[in-house]
Each structure stands twice: as structure tokens, then as C-alpha cells.
Amino acid sequence: MTVDRLLDIAVTINPGFYLIAAAVWAVFARGPGSRGVALLGGPALALLALLYAPASGTEITRSFFLGFNMSLYRPDSLSMIFGFGFVLAAALSGVYSLHREDRMQDSAGLLYAGAAMAAVFAGDLISLVVFWELTAVASVALVFARQTKQGQMAGMRYLLIQLLSGLLLMAGVVLYGLDAGSFLFADLGQLHRGVLIGMLDIHAPGGLLILAGVGIKAAFPTFHNWLTDAYPNTTETGAVVMSAYTTTLAVYVLARCFAGLDWLVWIGAAMTVYPVFFAVMENDLRRVLAYSTNNQIGFMVCAVGIGTPLAIDGAAAHAVAHIVFKGLLFMAMGAVFMRTGTTKASELGGLHRTMPWTTLFCLIGAMSISALPLFAGFSTKSMIMTAAHTPAMFAVWLMLLFASAGVLEHSGIKIPYFAFFSHDSGKRPKEAPFTMLLAMGLASALCLAIGIAPGWFFELLPYRSVAMAFLAQDLFTADHLLVQMQLLAFAVLAFVLLKRLKLYPTEQPGVILDIEWLWRKAAPAITGVLGRLAGRLGVWADKAFGRAGAGLISGSGQIFAPDGVVARHLPLAGAAIWTVALLSFVLILAMSSPG
Amino acid sequence: MTETRSGEQNDPHPQPAGEADEHPLSVLLFSWMRSDLFDRMFLAGLGALCAVLAALELVIHRHDGGGIDSLPVFQGVFGFLAFALAVLSGWPLGRLMRRPENYYRDQPDKDPDNTVEEEKEDGHDG
Amino acid sequence: MNAFIDFYAAPPGLTAHAAPLLVIGPLIAACAAALSPSTRSAWMISVGGTIFAFWMALCLAGEVARNGVVNYYMGGFAPPLGIAFRIDALGVMFALLISGIGVMAALFSGHTLEAEIMKGKRRLYQSGFLLCVAGLLGLSATGDAFNAFVFLEVSSIGTYALIGVGVDRRALPAAFNYLVMGTIGATFFVIGVGFLYAATGTLNMADMSGRLATLGDSRVVEAGFAFIVIGLGLKAAMFPLHGWLPAAYAYAPSLMGVFLSATATKAALYLMARFLFTVFGPHLDFVGLFLTWVMAPVAGAAAIICSAQAIFQTDIRRILAFSSVAQVGYIMLGVSMASAEGVSAGLFHLFNQALIKSALFMALGGLAFNIKATKLSDFSGVGRTAPWTMTAFAIGTFSLAGVPLTAGFLSKWRLIEAAFAAHWLWAVGVIAVSSLLGLIYAGRMLETIFFRAPVSEERAGEARFGVLVPLWILAAASVWYGLDASLPVDLSTAAAQALGLAPAGAAP
Questions:
Q1: Do A583 and C227 make contact, defined as CB atoms within 8 angstroms?
Q2: What distance in Å separates residue A408's CA from the closest CA in chain C?
Q3: Is residue B43 part of a domain?
Q4: Any CB–CB contact under 8 A between A530 and chain C?
Q5: Using the beta-carbon criterion (under 8 Å), do A593 and C286 form an inter-chain contact?
Q6: Which residue, A502, A501, A521, is CA-closest to A511?
Q7: Looking at beta carbons, which residues of chain A come within 8 Å of C508?
Q8: Does residue B45 lie within any of the structural domains?
Q9: Is residue C1 within 8 Å of residue C491, measured between CB atoms?
């Protein structure tokens, strides 16, 4: 039947393309109905495509890229869980942004989601790079969408860093693929217990370049600044959208390409620790959340480095749960930002009086990220902590444990406390619009669903049996609950005591220096000095060369511009000198060549 | 947990508790938190919870890696110290790394020199 | 060339004479346009003449695909005495490109000349344009070194006049500048050809190549070589001899911007490749030295320095012009690798650049009706009032910056591949850095056009339909060739083979 035939074709299309099609629709969508179709219909179609996806490991291969085989759609259990996370993110951010009639942001958000999704289901390195670049382009539009000078400068910095990463990745992929003779995942690596992970060899040509490119996207230490710079500079919806994809996609690529690489264990552990200190000092709550993202991605990177089935499951599960609860926190902060125009802790406080629903949802998000039992973060992060809890990695485990206490500080307490409680700022904003509350409510429900009954969620993970065994034997055991509660309860006790003793730092306005200082302050200063130097040199050189040039030209009979005015306005004299110089050089080169 | 930072003393119009324009859900969920009694009860309850959690270790056998994490109430103590370290490090690090708001001169509406003045005053207060 | 193997565009009788007709068609049309009764009829003659040339180029493509080389002797006199046209895959690629862009430019010209050219001069303007097309096509078809000079000058003289004739007064000094530099270049070229004639006694390029091979080490040949490459380098805007280009492109009437940016420097590049690889040949020491020690570094410097210069321009056309010089750098970088991969990647990039630059200049020219604007800041927010025009512009910009899914991405990719294959890691670095810089100026343009609020009350409306059609054909081609690049890749690979460069080993 033709309908069946059409459906057969429809399920062999990469689900990301449905979101990209919705993005095209969104460009032309006017009015709430049409926008709703784009923002919700796109994710719904993508979800259907996921549900009816071909069997794991099927490849839809086409050869139209310069003679290389490209695999546009290669679903397997690792890509499925990330694809599921991206569908959730697209749907939630779609609902969240319904209140704001902005076709460019709708479209960019959907394109971003679609490109990320397509990248996750791509089956070869070239498609991966192409879709990866597309996410960068789409996301830049979101940073630019807040039409302030600050936003635009941040957008340019973001764009540059993203594209640098894209270039590194592209160069690495070309080197790697040419050396290996294929770009297809299936040719590059082998299955590890049924899942294709860790397929690239870091020591092969291009391996390091790929890691560097992915590392920038994953916000490795010292490459992390784009994240903390861009997220606080977007609109209220932009930050929600952005928090979901780029770093999560990086975790996916790390798992696919470099799972089990032991450097990642240490890089990830370092990533969990240092943002804690920045987040304590930071005044802008959305920037605190950006540091918190950094810290959470660290857990995943570390798990990918460990590379055991439980760790990979933990990384994937935590990545998807992180999309939900970090999205929820960004949604809450976005609502605050929209209603008050700021997310600076020093200007906020006491908002729970008029924004109780937002407060409630923010608290659920905060408890989820702090890994309180029965909330999403507990179910997923526990896998990573358990995988890391071995004598060989004891130091790493301690770092992760420290970071867990740190998460509680900056995301669990600082975010809700300073925005909604704390000292009353006197601000009495309206509650967030209904669609925003709806999105937050849905995300909260998901946090609880993953936290209370994680079984359905663990079914989706790459190593299903390992995850189910973990759920049955380790997750909700008395001793596991006990140690986690001890960690959290004692940490909260520390907070209350420090607050009582007035040892908790007050919120002060100001920016916190980070690695960006290098290019936002030091580099302009250095180029300024060099520029002044070059200016002096230029004046001197102008005089010197001017005289030499005049000599040369008078020798050749002053053919051009005797009046001198033209000579000053036109670069003729200079061009003539260059021509003569180059000609002489080529003549000398040619004549001196060995016979 | 009432706010005790110095900023509040400078606030000429402190908001009275239990306002008229408060959202009913907020009255239901959060308004009772704004009392000194709750503050004290919260601290007491938290202390009791910690004590119970520590005591439970006697009953529940805990898996551990065999290192220092086999010490009693290891995760509790570690959590307490880690949290305190993170928070307290905010003081010296803040001194070292905090700069005025318009440090990168990206906010055209603000004059960086003025914020420097404010920053200095804040510094003296703290 | 496989796409053309079964391609018969015209009856055999016509196809047999396609080579001269390729040049004569536009020449006759040029005369007709000058004598035509009205602007409108001149425009139709212009469109007809270029379409005819494109048709002939297609016929030739079929012939070349089947026979490899098309030789045509004027009046039946064989080369040493007679005048010969010799068209191979490289020549066909350029003939297709020049005549194809010519058709687009001619279509475009009907709607913009009114705004930019004084009333009495429009017919002559079309005539000059056709003359320029004829000259460039002749260049791609001729097999004779001196005729190449003649055709180069035919096209250049047309160009000098056409640049200066617009309403923008700054175009006059620009045209004068170009005239002087172009004449120096042509003189150098003809001096070089003279040296070669003295040494070999022939002007036919194929004969010349054969005799040079037996000549051994000759100072005369070496001097001729130096004059030819520098002369052509000037015409091709080889860094640092590009001084004439930015002003000429920026201030010329938009038709010239569209056509010249796509073809003029490219034709000189064609001739340079022809001399480097077929007349001299990379096996000669001095050619190898020139490629490695002059062309490659100069190309790298162009790609970086001119991209950086483009970032700091305030005039949007000057941004594009400096970008053109940078792109010439990319192309020369590919050519200087002297490998089949490098040269074909360079030619592929050249093909894409021709599409992109003509589309970009066309989009700007299409708005010339509505806004008398040249500064980038004048274009603030134009994306909102002229979405179709500026979306096409955005596609062109994406391709220029090498964003994936566009043709510009694929050709940069091929260049990087070729650089890796040649073990020129520095060239990979150059391409990467220059691409970054390219993204900055591309981002700057798009940011202004789409994200800034409009500066003036004066609303820039959409370009006319007659402009949108060729504009979107070019933009769509950029996207199409970004997805399925088989045609330009075929053409450029065959062209590289026609230059005597065999691909090294089997491609994966």
C-alpha cells in the first residue's frame, strides 16, 4: 500500500530532520496556532520517529559527499537515549517559549534541537561534523536574540569559540578518516558488549584534534568560558534552549569516540571541582547555573572516561536527566529574568510571595540537581558515583563527592534561596505566564518520575540489563540512602550554621574574573600597545619607503600622476614598487635555479 | 531564616511580614517560614536529623571502599567540611577575583569609574 | 566531465563551429547592442548573446567530454601559420563559468542600469559588457599565446570603461588605477610572450610547450617566465599586487561588480595555470621554485591578511572585494601545490567563489534602487524589509564563510584534504585561520543586516523580481553544489587532468 510505503520511508529518515522541518515551518508561522504546530508538532513527529526507529545498528547510507559513504541515520541504544533527551528538551522549551512571539528564536531553537538530534543519529564522522556545525550556527542566533550590545559582543565571542571547535573537529576528522580509510562508525570501531563506544584511537592522526574540538564543546577546563559567557547573555528562553544541547551532544560524542580514555576521568573530575568555587562567588544566578552545568558535565565526562557499562549508563542517564532539571532551573531563572529584568542575586530576594509556583518548581529542580533521594539526580548520579567508587579511583571519587556537596551549595541552595527567599528586595513581580508554568510543571513531573520510579527510564539506557540490576540491587538500598542523606543533611547544617555565624559571603555586584580575562582584557591591552608601536613604525616606514619609492619611480620616467595628489590617494606607487620587487625576486629565483 | 546581612539595616523601608499582595499559594507554602520560631525549629530539626542519620550507621551496615571512607559518618563529615570549604573560600577568592560590574566596559549605560567608587565603598563596609 | 559525455546540445554542423561561435556570438551581439534602437532592445540582445555563448559552451563541453580536446583551425590553416582555438577540459570549465555568469549578469543588468548609468550610455554599456564577455571567452578558447594577450586586452579595455562610467565619482580614480595596473600587467605579459617567441619561434602554446621541453636551461625563457607570471599575477590580483581591485569592485556599477568579481581575476588565473602547467610544466625547476617559494607564501599571506583587512572595512562592497583577494589566495594555494588534488580543489573553490561573489554583489546591486547605501551600517535591519534579497545574500555569505551544507564548505574541505595529502600542514593552518577571519566578517555583515535595528526611516524594499530570479538561481546553486558537488568536482578534476596532473594513487 502506498501509505505503508510512505511510512516505511518516513521511519528511515533521521528524526532530527523532522525538527529541522519544523524549524523551517516556524520561520513562516504566524499566530499561536501555527506556532504551536511548529513548536510541539516537530518534537511530536520526532518522538514518533524515535518510537518506530529501525532496529539498532541499521544504517541508511548514501554516497553523495565527494565519493565518501555517509550514513545519515544509524540508530543504536546510545543514540536513542540522547535522542530521547533532545526530544524532551525540544518539547519543554517549545511549551516554555509559547508566550513569546519571536519567529527567529522559535526557528533557531528548533533548528538547534534538530541539528543536535541529527548529529546523535549520524553514522559517520562527516555527517557528525556537518550537523555539529549546524548546531553552532543555530545557537548563535539565540545569543544574538537579546538585542543589546552586551549580547552581541557575547554572541561574537561565542561564535568564534564554537567555530574554532568546529574547525579543530573538522581537521581532526579529515586526518583521521583519510588515515583510517573510512569515515563510517561501523568501520572505525568495534562493539563493546553490543554498543559501539570508544571507537576512536586517540593516538591515531587527528585523534587529538578531535578530542580538542569536542573538548571545547564539552567546556573542558580553560575551554569552559564560552558557556558561562553566553548563557547569561541570552533571552529567558534562549538560555533554556542552549542549556540542553551543545554540552550534552559533546558528552555523546565523547562516549561514542573516546569512552574509556583515562585522561577523561581526571579532566571530568577537575571539571566538577573548580566551578564550585566560581559559583560561590558569582552574583548573576544564570551564570551560577552555567558554572553548575560545567560541574554536572564534569560528572558525565568522568563517567565516560571510566568507560564501564555502568559508567556509560550513568553518563547517558545523567545527561538526559540533566537536560530536564537544568532546563527546569533555567526556566525558573528565565521567569525571574522576564519579570524583573535581572538575575543578579544582589538585586533579588523574597520573590516567593508573588511567584510561588515558580518557587515551587525551582525547588524541585534544585532538589533534583542536588541528588536528593526520590528526585531525578539521585537516580542517575548514583550510577556514576558507584562506578567511580573503587580503590583505584579513590581520589577521583573524593573529588566527585566534594563536587556533590558543591552542587548542593550553588544549585541546590544558592539559586532558590537568593532568588526567592533571602533578604526581601521589595520586588513584587507577577507570576510567570501560564505556558511557562506549564513547562516547568512538566519538567518537575519528569524529575519526580525519574526519581521515584526510574525503571521506565533505565529501560532506555545503552546497557539496559546493567542499569536494571543497579536499580534492583543498589539504588534504593538502606545504606545508599543513608550515606546520601548524611552528605546532604550535614551540608545543609553547614549552610545554616555559616549563615547564623554570618560567615556566608554576602551577595555583591561585580564580575568574577575567569579565563575570558585573557581575551577580553589582556589581549586588547596587548594589541593596543602593539598598535601604537606599529603606528610609530608605520610613520617611520612611510618616510623611509616613500623616499625609496620616489627614487624608483623617477627612474622609470614618472609615468603616473605627476601632481602628487593622485599618488597620495591611489596606491599606484606602492603597487608599482611591489610589482618591481616581486618581478626581481622571481627573476632571481628563476635564473638561479639549478639547470 | 531571616536575612541578617548588613544591607537590610540600610533599607529605609523594610517590608512588613505577611503582606496583602501575597499569592495565596505562597501564604500556604512559604509564609510560615518567615518567623524566628521556624528558624530555631529548623535548626533544631536539622540537628536532630543529622544525629539520627549518624546513629543509623550502627544499625545499617554500610558498603565502603576500605579506605578512609570506612570511618564513621564519613559522608556526613565530608559533606559538612566540603560545604564549609566551598563557602568560606568565597571570601578570599572574592577579594582576589571580583571586579566592578562594567569591568569589561560592555555596558554602555554604566560608567565604569562610578562603579569603581561603589565597589570601594562596599569593600570598606564588608 | 562524465555528465556531458552523452550531451548533444546542438546539431553536428553547428557543434563543429562552436569554438569560434563562442567568441563571435557575443562580439556580434556587442555591435548589435551598440546600434540597437533602445535600452530595452540592447538588454534583450545582451541576454540573447550571453545565452548563445552559454549554449555554445555546452556544445563544447559535450565535445570535450567525448574527444578530450577540441582543436579548431581558423580557415583550415594549421597552427604554425594559422590561428588555432584549442579547448580542453580546463577551457570548457571556464567557458561554462564565464558564459553562465554572463547570462545571470545580463538578466540582472536590465533592472539596475536605470539606477546606475546615465540615460544615453546604457546601450553602449551593454555593448561594452558583451565585448568583455567575448574577450574572456576568447581567452578560454584560444590556443595561441599572442591571441591570449589580445583577448585579455579586449576584455580589459571593456572593463576599464565600464568601471569608470557609473554615477559614483570614486569609480573614476578606481578605473584609472585599474587601467594603469592592468596595462602594466598586460605589458609584462606581452614582454614575456615576446621572450618566449624569441626562444622558441612559435606563438602556439602547444608548440611552445614542445619546444621548451627540448630547449634546456635558457635565460631568455626564465626571464619570459618571470614577466608572464608577474603580469598575470597583477591581472589576477595576486597579493600584494591587488591594490587596484578593492576600489574597482566597490565603486563600479553593480553589473560590473557582479560580472568582474566572478570572472575577471579568474580568467587571469586560468591563463596563469595554463602557462604554469602546460606551456612550462611543473617539472621545470624554476616553475617548481616559483610555486613553492613565491606563489604559495603569497597565497597564504593573501588568505590571512586580506581576510583581516576585510574585517575592518566599513563599506560593504569593500568587505566583499577584500574577501575576493583572500579567495584568490585560497585558489592559488591549491594551484601552488601542483598536485592533481590541489589544483582541482583550487579550481573547485574558484567555481564556487564565482557563484558566491556574483550572488552577493547581485543582492547588493538589487537594492541599489531603494537605498543609496554603500556603508555596512546603512544596511542595518535591511534583512527585515527585504527578506528575499537578503536571505539569498545570507546563503551566499554562509557559502563564503564555508558553513557546512554549502558549496564553500566542500571546496575548503577539498583544499584541506589536498594540503594534508601534500603534507603542507602550514597551509591547513592558514586555511583554518583565514576561515575563522572569514567567519568574523561574514558574521559582521549578517549581524548588521539581520539583527540591527534599521537606521533610517527610508525603507529598503525588496529587489525587483527580475533581479531576484538570477539571484536565487545563484544562491540555490550554492546550496545545491553544497549537497551534490559532482558537477563542479567532475569539471575541476577533469580540468586538473587536462593540465597534465594525474591523481596520485587511488582515492579512498
A1: yes
A2: 39
A3: yes
A4: no
A5: yes
A6: A521
A7: 68, 178, 181-182
A8: yes
A9: yes
Confidence of residue C369 (pLDDT cuts 50, 70, 90): low
Q: State the average pLDDT over residues A145-172.
A: 80
CB pairs under 8 A between A and B: 208
Decide if pLDDT at C435 tops 90: no
Q: Is residue C254 part of a domain?
A: no
Q: Report whether pLDDT(C251) > 90.
A: no
Cα angle C383, C384, C388; round to 5: 60
A159 CB within 8 Å of a chain C CB: yes
Chain A partners within 8 Å of B33 (Cβ): 421
Q: Which domain holds residue A426?
A: 264-510
**Has residue C121 been placed in a domain?**
no
Residue A30, sorted as left (phi over 0), alpha (psi -120 to 50) or beta, turns out to be beta
Chains A and B contact (Cβ–Cβ under 8 Å for 3 or more pairs): yes
Contact C403 A171 (CB under 8 A): no
Contact criterion met (CB < 8 Å) for A508 and B73 = no
Domain boundary among A454, A484, A510: A510
Q: From A476, A493, A510, give the residue that closes a domain.
A: A510
Q: State yes or no: pLDDT of C477 exceeds 50.
A: yes
DSSP C86: E
Is residue A106 situated within a structural domain? Answer: no
For residues A281 and A407, the answer to whether their CB atoms sit within 8 Å is no
Instruction: Check A144 against C447: CB less than 8 A apart.
Output: yes
Nearest beta carbon to residue B66 from set A391, A408, A482:
A391
**Which DSSP string corresponds to C145-162?**
HHHHHHHHHHHHHHHHHH
* Coil, strand or helix at A477: coil
Instruction: Decide if pLDDT at B2 tops 80.
Output: no
Which domain covers residue C302, as residue numbers?
A: 284-500
CA distances from C380 to B36, C453, C456 (A): 58, 6, 9
Q: Is the Cβ–Cβ distance between A327 and A364 less than 8 Å?
A: no
In chain A, what percentage of residues exceed pLDDT 70?
91
CA distance C303 to C428: 12
Which residues of A are less than 8 Å from C380 in CB distance?
Answer: none
Do A454 and A572 belong together in one domain? no
**Residue B36 domain-assigned?**
yes
pTM: 0.66
List chains adjacent to chain C, taking adjacency as at least 3 C-beta pairs closer than 8 Å: A
Location of C-alpha cell 593596543: A528
Q: Alpha-carbon distance A412 to C472, whole Å?
A: 53
Same domain, A307 and A362: yes
Tell me the mean pLDDT in the region A447-462.
94
Note whether A448 and A542 are same-domain residues: no
Identify whether A454 is part of a domain: yes
**Could you tell me if A315 and A427 lie in one domain?**
yes
Chain B residues touching residue A478 (CB < 8 angstroms) = 60
Whether B112 shows a pLDDT value over 60: the answer reads: no
User: A6 in a domain, yes or no?
Assistant: no
pLDDT of residue A581: 84
Question: Which chains are adjacent to chain A, needing at least 3 Cβ pairs under 8 Å?
Answer: B, C
Higher pLDDT, C163 or A147: C163
Do A480 and A529 have their domain in common?
no
User: How many distinct structural domains can be found in chain B?
Assistant: 1
Domain membership of residue B13 as a residue range:
1-65
Q: Tell whether C491 is covered by a domain.
A: yes
The reply to whether B44 falls in a domain is: yes
Q: Quick one: A416 and A276 in the same domain?
A: yes
A503, B93: Cβ pair inside 8 Å? no
Q: A292 vs chain C: nearest CA distance in angstroms?
A: 30
Distance from CA of C249 to the nearest CA of A (A): 15
